[in-house]
Write a structure and sequence with these properties.
Elements: H1 2-21, E1 94-98, E2 106-112, E3 115-120, E4 123-128, E5 137-141, E6 146-154, E7 160-164, E8 171-176, E9 179-183, E10 189-195
Antiparallel strand pairs: 1-2, 1-10, 2-3, 3-4, 5-6, 6-7, 7-8, 8-9, 9-10
Amino acid sequence: MVIGASAALLLTLSGIVYVLFFWPRPVDTTEARVWQGRGNQVDYCDIQTLDGGGLNASEIPKAYTPGCNFDVLPMPILANCREPLSEGLADMRGLWRGITGRIGHLERIEQCGNRFVITVAGLIHDFRADGTLANGARDVNSNGCTNLASAIRSDKSGALQFRPFNLFNAVERRLEDDHLIFTYIDGIETRMERICRYPDSDEKRQNKS
Protein backbone atom coordinates (compact mmCIF):
# COMPACT_ATOMS: atom_id res chain seq x y z
CA MET A 1 0.00 0.00 0.00
CA VAL A 2 2.75 2.42 1.01
CA ILE A 3 4.90 1.40 -1.96
CA GLY A 4 1.97 1.96 -4.32
CA ALA A 5 1.28 5.41 -2.90
CA SER A 6 4.95 6.33 -3.12
CA ALA A 7 5.10 5.19 -6.73
CA ALA A 8 2.03 7.23 -7.60
CA LEU A 9 3.50 10.31 -5.92
CA LEU A 10 6.81 9.86 -7.76
CA LEU A 11 4.98 9.50 -11.06
CA THR A 12 2.95 12.63 -10.38
CA LEU A 13 6.03 14.65 -9.44
CA SER A 14 7.87 13.39 -12.53
CA GLY A 15 4.94 14.47 -14.68
CA ILE A 16 4.94 17.94 -13.12
CA VAL A 17 8.70 18.34 -13.69
CA TYR A 18 8.30 17.25 -17.33
CA VAL A 19 5.46 19.68 -17.98
CA LEU A 20 7.18 22.60 -16.27
CA PHE A 21 10.61 22.22 -17.86
CA PHE A 22 10.53 19.87 -20.86
CA TRP A 23 7.05 20.09 -22.43
CA PRO A 24 7.64 21.26 -26.04
CA ARG A 25 6.41 24.75 -26.77
CA PRO A 26 3.70 25.17 -29.43
CA VAL A 27 4.63 26.63 -32.79
CA ASP A 28 4.73 30.42 -32.49
CA THR A 29 2.00 31.79 -34.73
CA THR A 30 2.26 35.41 -33.59
CA GLU A 31 1.86 37.77 -36.53
CA ALA A 32 5.03 39.69 -37.47
CA ARG A 33 3.11 43.01 -37.43
CA VAL A 34 2.76 42.70 -33.66
CA TRP A 35 6.48 43.45 -33.26
CA GLN A 36 6.64 46.16 -35.93
CA GLY A 37 5.52 48.98 -33.69
CA ARG A 38 5.61 50.08 -30.08
CA GLY A 39 2.51 49.23 -28.11
CA ASN A 40 3.27 51.82 -25.43
CA GLN A 41 2.47 54.59 -27.92
CA VAL A 42 -1.16 53.53 -28.49
CA ASP A 43 -4.16 55.41 -27.03
CA TYR A 44 -6.04 52.66 -25.19
CA CYS A 45 -9.05 54.85 -24.49
CA ASP A 46 -9.77 54.74 -28.23
CA ILE A 47 -11.64 51.44 -28.03
CA GLN A 48 -12.80 49.89 -31.29
CA THR A 49 -16.44 49.20 -32.08
CA LEU A 50 -17.20 45.48 -32.29
CA ASP A 51 -19.80 45.73 -35.06
CA GLY A 52 -18.84 42.67 -37.11
CA GLY A 53 -17.37 44.87 -39.83
CA GLY A 54 -13.86 43.41 -39.76
CA LEU A 55 -12.04 40.19 -38.93
CA ASN A 56 -13.45 37.71 -36.46
CA ALA A 57 -11.43 36.14 -33.66
CA SER A 58 -10.64 32.93 -35.54
CA GLU A 59 -9.07 34.85 -38.42
CA ILE A 60 -6.29 36.28 -36.26
CA PRO A 61 -3.45 33.85 -35.42
CA LYS A 62 -2.88 33.09 -31.77
CA ALA A 63 -0.06 35.07 -30.18
CA TYR A 64 2.58 33.74 -27.80
CA THR A 65 5.22 35.16 -25.51
CA PRO A 66 8.55 35.09 -27.37
CA GLY A 67 10.97 33.00 -25.32
CA CYS A 68 10.38 33.77 -21.66
CA ASN A 69 9.36 37.45 -21.88
CA PHE A 70 9.68 40.53 -24.07
CA ASP A 71 11.42 43.88 -23.74
CA VAL A 72 9.42 45.88 -26.32
CA LEU A 73 5.68 46.06 -25.74
CA PRO A 74 3.88 44.43 -28.70
CA MET A 75 1.21 46.16 -30.69
CA PRO A 76 -2.38 45.06 -29.94
CA ILE A 77 -2.98 41.50 -31.13
CA LEU A 78 -6.71 41.89 -31.84
CA ALA A 79 -6.47 45.37 -33.39
CA ASN A 80 -8.34 44.36 -36.55
CA CYS A 81 -10.98 42.15 -34.89
CA ARG A 82 -14.57 43.40 -34.97
CA GLU A 83 -16.44 40.30 -33.80
CA PRO A 84 -19.02 41.25 -31.12
CA LEU A 85 -18.37 39.93 -27.64
CA SER A 86 -19.90 36.55 -26.88
CA GLU A 87 -22.98 36.54 -24.68
CA GLY A 88 -22.23 36.63 -20.95
CA LEU A 89 -18.71 38.03 -21.22
CA ALA A 90 -17.91 41.27 -19.44
CA ASP A 91 -16.21 43.96 -21.52
CA MET A 92 -12.81 44.39 -19.85
CA ARG A 93 -11.04 45.99 -22.80
CA GLY A 94 -8.49 48.70 -22.13
CA LEU A 95 -5.33 49.51 -20.22
CA TRP A 96 -5.51 49.13 -16.45
CA ARG A 97 -3.26 50.32 -13.60
CA GLY A 98 -3.30 49.11 -10.00
CA ILE A 99 -4.26 51.68 -7.39
CA THR A 100 -4.51 49.33 -4.39
CA GLY A 101 -2.84 46.00 -3.63
CA ARG A 102 -0.14 45.73 -6.30
CA ILE A 103 0.02 49.47 -6.87
CA GLY A 104 1.29 50.34 -10.35
CA HIS A 105 0.48 46.90 -11.78
CA LEU A 106 -0.26 47.34 -15.50
CA GLU A 107 -2.16 45.11 -17.85
CA ARG A 108 -3.66 45.52 -21.30
CA ILE A 109 -6.82 43.57 -22.12
CA GLU A 110 -8.11 42.97 -25.65
CA GLN A 111 -11.32 41.15 -26.54
CA CYS A 112 -13.53 40.08 -29.42
CA GLY A 113 -15.90 37.13 -29.64
CA ASN A 114 -14.92 34.90 -26.72
CA ARG A 115 -11.24 35.58 -27.22
CA PHE A 116 -9.06 37.57 -24.83
CA VAL A 117 -5.47 38.72 -25.03
CA ILE A 118 -4.02 39.93 -21.74
CA THR A 119 -0.56 41.45 -22.04
CA VAL A 120 1.14 41.87 -18.69
CA ALA A 121 4.59 41.65 -17.05
CA GLY A 122 6.43 40.67 -20.23
CA LEU A 123 3.92 37.92 -21.06
CA ILE A 124 1.13 37.45 -23.62
CA HIS A 125 -1.90 35.43 -22.50
CA ASP A 126 -4.02 34.67 -25.61
CA PHE A 127 -7.05 32.44 -25.04
CA ARG A 128 -10.73 31.68 -25.50
CA ALA A 129 -12.88 31.98 -22.39
CA ASP A 130 -14.65 28.68 -22.99
CA GLY A 131 -13.36 26.73 -19.99
CA THR A 132 -11.21 24.31 -22.03
CA LEU A 133 -7.49 23.65 -21.91
CA ALA A 134 -7.41 23.20 -25.68
CA ASN A 135 -8.42 26.83 -26.22
CA GLY A 136 -6.88 28.20 -23.05
CA ALA A 137 -3.69 30.15 -22.40
CA ARG A 138 -0.46 28.29 -23.24
CA ASP A 139 2.02 30.37 -21.34
CA VAL A 140 5.42 30.60 -19.78
CA ASN A 141 6.32 31.74 -16.32
CA SER A 142 8.97 34.43 -16.62
CA ASN A 143 10.37 33.32 -13.24
CA GLY A 144 12.28 30.24 -14.41
CA CYS A 145 10.80 30.14 -17.92
CA THR A 146 8.55 27.19 -17.05
CA ASN A 147 5.53 25.93 -18.97
CA LEU A 148 1.97 26.58 -17.91
CA ALA A 149 -1.38 25.80 -19.48
CA SER A 150 -4.60 27.28 -18.13
CA ALA A 151 -8.26 26.91 -18.93
CA ILE A 152 -10.18 30.17 -18.56
CA ARG A 153 -13.86 30.47 -17.87
CA SER A 154 -16.33 33.22 -17.11
CA ASP A 155 -18.72 32.59 -14.23
CA LYS A 156 -22.32 33.79 -13.98
CA SER A 157 -21.23 37.14 -12.56
CA GLY A 158 -18.87 37.76 -15.48
CA ALA A 159 -15.69 37.16 -13.47
CA LEU A 160 -12.85 35.68 -15.52
CA GLN A 161 -11.14 32.75 -13.79
CA PHE A 162 -7.74 31.26 -14.70
CA ARG A 163 -7.46 27.55 -13.88
CA PRO A 164 -3.95 26.02 -14.24
CA PHE A 165 -4.35 22.70 -16.05
CA ASN A 166 -8.08 23.17 -15.35
CA LEU A 167 -7.59 21.99 -11.76
CA PHE A 168 -8.32 25.01 -9.55
CA ASN A 169 -8.99 28.74 -9.70
CA ALA A 170 -5.70 30.61 -9.39
CA VAL A 171 -6.37 34.09 -10.76
CA GLU A 172 -9.59 36.08 -11.13
CA ARG A 173 -10.47 39.33 -12.87
CA ARG A 174 -13.83 41.02 -12.49
CA LEU A 175 -15.38 44.41 -13.14
CA GLU A 176 -16.69 46.41 -10.20
CA ASP A 177 -18.16 49.83 -10.97
CA ASP A 178 -15.46 51.55 -13.07
CA HIS A 179 -12.62 49.37 -11.80
CA LEU A 180 -11.09 46.04 -12.71
CA ILE A 181 -10.43 43.83 -9.69
CA PHE A 182 -7.50 41.44 -10.08
CA THR A 183 -7.05 38.70 -7.46
CA TYR A 184 -3.89 36.61 -7.60
CA ILE A 185 -3.35 33.11 -6.22
CA ASP A 186 -1.63 34.58 -3.14
CA GLY A 187 -4.93 36.25 -2.19
CA ILE A 188 -3.78 39.82 -2.82
CA GLU A 189 -6.57 41.84 -4.42
CA THR A 190 -5.60 44.70 -6.70
CA ARG A 191 -8.10 47.37 -7.71
CA MET A 192 -7.23 48.88 -11.08
CA GLU A 193 -8.27 52.07 -12.82
CA ARG A 194 -8.51 52.58 -16.56
CA ILE A 195 -5.80 54.74 -18.14
CA CYS A 196 -5.25 55.78 -21.76
CA ARG A 197 -1.49 55.36 -22.18
CA TYR A 198 1.40 53.55 -20.62
CA PRO A 199 3.44 55.75 -18.28
CA ASP A 200 6.58 56.98 -20.04
CA SER A 201 8.91 54.78 -18.00
CA ASP A 202 6.68 51.70 -18.00
CA GLU A 203 6.72 49.88 -21.31
CA LYS A 204 7.08 46.71 -19.30
CA ARG A 205 6.61 46.21 -15.56
CA GLN A 206 7.74 43.19 -13.61
CA ASN A 207 4.46 42.32 -11.89
CA LYS A 208 2.79 38.97 -11.36
CA SER A 209 0.19 37.99 -13.95
